[in-house]
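Inverse folding, one chain.
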């Protein structure tokens, strides 16, 4: 899918033709759409195909007067099994400082925020500022999703405390996996932003400097949050693993004690079932006496286990 937008006095408008100072948004393009863009603007094919590779890392590439910024953005998938967080590449291509193209393998909240004009003062004629606004919004999404991850981890922690099930531990593992992806992507984005800052590909005025400063502050905050939350989740998994092992030991110890206590009356009954001369065998109360001996022996075993704190 290819959409073309341009800033106007009334805001962002959708246009039908490629124009200077416009923004071309490409989402999950077909081979024909990729070929048409390459033929139209004479740009390297990998500028369009690299952002479609889910494993691409953030980087900056320059080709004559054109350059591409590859960044990784967070996405949230919601299905019947719940919500899942991951990161995907987004390509930002600047052609001879006249046109901006964004390329992504799927629709996402980041680009939709710009299309739906939720970002103030977004101007397609100022490509440097537009790039920084995309980075700034990306970091804000990371921070928002990280807070959601932490809240979800808190809910899982409460569920595990009430009833420990494998499903909760699997959910914690999935959250930890998402945090690892977030942390790796944020660090990769940070390196790319530092390289962009040194490259001086566009002029920096006061407004761009302010946005860049926000971008740097937000990405550092997001990296710290990802590292802290990941550490917390790891400690949580270790804690609950230890708790499960301890509970298992308690259960096994209790069952062992019960088995021993039950074995005491069985031993007494077995002895009195032998075909030999036994005490009280001539007494009319032999059965009652046997029961009393068994009960006393079992009670003594219970008292011993309680005293030793085995049960």
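Residues assigned per position:
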């Amino acid at each position: 899918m290819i959409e073309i937008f341009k800033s106007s006095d009334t805001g962002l408008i959708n246009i039908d033709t490629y124009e200077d100072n416009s923004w071309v948004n490409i989402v999950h393009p077909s081979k024909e759409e990729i070929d048409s863009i390459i033929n139209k603007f004479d740009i390297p094919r990998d500028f369009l195909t690299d952002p479609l590779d889910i494993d691409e890392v953030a980087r900056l590439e320059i080709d004559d007067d054109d350059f591409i910024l590859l960044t990784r953005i967070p996405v949230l998938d919601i299905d019947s099994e719940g919500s899942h967080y991951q990161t995907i590449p987004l390509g930002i291509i600047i052609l001879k400082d006249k046109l901006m193209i964004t390329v992504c393998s799927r629709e996402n909240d980041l680009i939709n925020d710009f299309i739906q004009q939720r970002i103030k003062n977004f101007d397609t004629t100022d490509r440097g500022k537009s790039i920084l606004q995309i980075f700034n919004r990306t970091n804000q999404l990371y921070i928002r999703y990280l807070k959601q991850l932490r809240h979800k981890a808190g809910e899982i922690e409460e569920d595990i405390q009430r009833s420990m099930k494998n499903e909760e531990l699997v959910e914690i593992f999935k959250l930890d996996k998402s945090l690892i992806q977030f942390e790796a992507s944020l660090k990769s984005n940070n390196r790319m932003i530092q390289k962009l800052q040194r490259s001086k590909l566009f002029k920096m005025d006061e407004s761009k400097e302010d946005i860049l400063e926000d971008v740097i502050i937000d990405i550092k905050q997001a990296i710290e949050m990802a590292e802290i939350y990941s550490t917390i989740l790891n400690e949580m998994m270790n804690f609950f693993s230890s708790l499960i092992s301890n509970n298992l030991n308690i259960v096994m110890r209790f069952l062992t004690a019960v088995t021993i206590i039950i074995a005491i009356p069985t031993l007494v009954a077995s002895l009195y079932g032998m075909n030999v001369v036994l005490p009280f065998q001539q007494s009319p109360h032999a059965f009652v006496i046997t029961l009393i001996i068994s009960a006393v022996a079992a009670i003594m075993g219970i008292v011993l286990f309680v005293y030793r704190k085995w049960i």
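The beta strands are 2-8, 11-15, 22-27, 59-63, 66-79, 82-95, 99-104. The chain is about 60% helix and 20% strand.
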